[in-house]
Amino acid sequence: IKVVIFINGCFWHGHLGCKKSTLPSTRKDFWKNKINGNIERDKRNINKLIKTGWRVAILWECCLINSDYILKSINLLLDWINKSETYLEIPEK
Q: Which Gene3D superfamilies match (predicted)?
């Protein structure tokens, strides 16, 4: 089994709808371009990994804020590893 697990910072990787991904009030254009560039790079890298036979899981920073969320995320991840789906995102966008 070839599995890669990314733990993404909600701000740096643009976790849509997450309060941790709010852009700073200064230099908004800079931050918007920076985060959008990170999102596009992540998409390209995920697609490359999947095309080469890897299964990809993304765990967002906000799902790791307390022990209950961490335990739930680990259980979801273990369930996913035992299935055949190629992509998992916790929590989903």
A: VSR Endonuclease
Whether the bond into 91 is cis, omega within 30 of 0: yes
AA letter at 73: S
pLDDT (mean) for 28-53 = 98
Which distant-in-sequence residues (6+ apart) come within 8 Å of 7 by Cβ? 59, 60, 61, 64
- Classified by CATH at the fold level, domain 3-90 comes out as Endonuclease; Chain A (3.40.960)
Report the run of H or E that residue 57 belongs to, with start and end. strand 55-60
pTM (2 decimals)?
0.90
Domain ranges of the chain: 3-90
